[in-house]
Amino acid sequence: MTLLEITGLTVHIGEKKLLDGVDLTLAAGESTGLIGESGSGKSLTALAVLGLLPEGARAEGSVRLDGTELLGLGDRALSRVRGERIAMVFQEPLTALNPLMRVGRQIAEPLRLHRGLSRRQAHAEAVRLAGEVGLPDPGRAVRAFPHQLSGGQRQRVGIAMALACRPALLIADEPTTALDVTVQAEILRLIRDLAAEQGTALLFITHDLAVLAQVVRRVVVLGGGRVLEDGALRDILRAPAHPYTRRLLEVARVESFPAEVAP
């Protein structure tokens, strides 16, 4: 069953075309990677899905979630979709989190907004979620401010916030770029495993095929605002059809890939 269907998505800023007829589908519960170099249009595609394009940008085409057209949807309707049906984990959690608000309150906020939980219920659920994403001493962790946590712990808070309402679609936009290698591997496993447990579809955005190989089975290659290749990750790793993809493989040093691609 198709969850997300993007058809002919084109984005202009002024006279410049940044996305050029992007087509992408994602089934319910499916994990797919969106990969490309900086400026290829990966994050812009995610922002178009969320209705968060930068000021001055205009989008054409279609973005449908469960059959509902999102392009042109009003702000109030979009705000209900974001957090409840679609959630996002950002690249740098320190800038994504409110520095003046305790992290427990930030995890609890979507629970109160979208699930109608009381303050007490939302706090209890925030503590549970903090434990589920691996924050040490969850009862204490939720009382911390973002600057009191490590980068990896802040990203765990971001994941807890994103998955709090069990969205149908999780978009992870370069979520491990700012983390060291050991923490990066832990966060990748956490995103992959929690999305699978909840039956949440995952659109994982990155420029690194080696990272992608640990999370998804299917990959869509984006270059110059266009889809250049779309298929099973194993097939693309073994026999990339487009020269752009072959360059990505060379940069990624595929000999260092894990022996087993994402389960």
UniProtKB/TrEMBL annotation:
Coiled coil, from the record: none
CDD domains with a match to the protein in the record: ABC_NikE_OppD_transporters
Pfam families recorded: ABC_tran (PF00005)
Protein name: ABC transporter domain-containing protein
Start and end residues of each ABC transporter domain: 4-249
Phylogenetic placement of the source organism: Bacteria, Bacillati, Actinomycetota, Actinomycetes, Pseudonocardiales
InterPro entries noted in UniProt: AAA+_ATPase, ABC_Ni/Peptide_Import, ABC_transporter-like_ATP-bd, ABC_transporter-like_CS, P-loop_NTPase
Record keywords, A-Z: ATP-binding, Cell membrane, Membrane, Nucleotide-binding, Transport
PROSITE patterns with a match to the protein in the record: ABC_TRANSPORTER_1, ABC_TRANSPORTER_2
